[in-house]
Amino acid sequence: MPAASATPAPWWDITAYDYDLPPELIAQEPAAQRDASRLLVYDMRRAALDHRHFAELPSLLRPDDVLVVNDCRVMPARLFGTRAGSGGAVEILLTARVDATTWHAMVRPGRACKPGARLEIAGVSAQVCACLPDGQRVLAFACTPAEFEALLQRAGVVPLPPYIKRPRAPSSPADRERYQTVYARAGCAIAAPTAGLHFTTELLDTLRAHGCQILAVTLDVGIGTFQPVAVDDLRRHQMHCEQCCITADTAAALNAARAAGHRIIAVGTTALRTLEACLDPHGQFQPFNGPTDIFIHPPLRIRAIDGLLTNFHLPRSTLLMLLAAWLGPDVWRDLYAEAIRQRYRFYSYGDAMLLLQSC
Predict the structure, then answer these.
(1) How many angstroms separate the CA atoms of 232 and 18, rounded?
(2) pLDDT tens digits, residue range 234-263?
(3) CA 275 to chain centre
(4) Angle at alpha carbon of residue 343, lines to 264 and 320, rounded to 5°
(5) What is the CATH number of the domain that holds 239?
(6) Could you report the per-residue pLDDT of 77-120, keeping only the tens digit for each?
(7) Are 129 and 142 within 8 A, CB to CB?
(8) What is the CATH number of the domain that holds 143?
(9) Which of 112, 120, 121, 128 minimizes the C-alpha distance to 76?
């Protein structure tokens, strides 16, 4: 691995999280098979890296390792409709549930969607009830909960990130299947915990047969995870709240694993954020079900894990800042430069990294 960069910007400077990525390395489609993606493996203690494939993961882990996954389910949260009266087109991204038929949403064009405006989406009406301080709207859908769920399944679009180019049309069956982990169970996320997209049911079974324990937490991925950082000084950035949950049984299993000296490996940044949010000052995991706005960045010390499985993240994103807190400000940059040289595929449908304190 090349030597670390000289005189980096201070951790709070947004430019410390810039890097140049050739556009052709932004994955537009997932690998042909989930576990066929590439895997960059880095031993943090020995500063040693290796290039493998995701299907080799069982051979890279110890039999007593604990993998913590985020089992949130991505909902088809993007809707297209018109404004009642004018017929003007409107785009809606549901971001947080108030109740079964009332949602916070990002709406475009916002200037035409003031309180009292009525929207028509695939035969269902929605009224703009309020404008929130951050520009989001509160939308009340004039239908039953069952009709609302039917609307999402009929007309909702999987909210793929904007760097994945798709026509303005209902989601393809392929995207609906592949932009969802095989272990998705609960919640109403608007983005996938993408490190988990590489797992197949068969690979999970192999890991369990190898002796690994798979534990689930839930963080409903929302705008807090992927919202752009709009300030130059990270000390002024405020994360949006996202709902997360660790059950009492999961907290007890994590504490038992830690007491036995077993490694805890977070599958993705959202699983890591949940673990850190639920770790008390004494290093014990506590059950929790509520909102978190945890923002992990240098020089904060990550205490909850011994390893991280993650995809490659956008410049200036809070996900990259979390990675810098785990690896250090120079190491992440050198690993990304190596991944670019080796033509790894980046972002949500791209390849992955396994970053262990000891291999």
Answers:
(1) 12
(2) 999 988 889 999 999 999 999 999 999 999
(3) 14
(4) 45
(5) 3.40.1780.10
(6) 999 999 998 999 999 999 989 999 999 999 999 888 999 999 99
(7) no
(8) 2.40.10.240
(9) 121
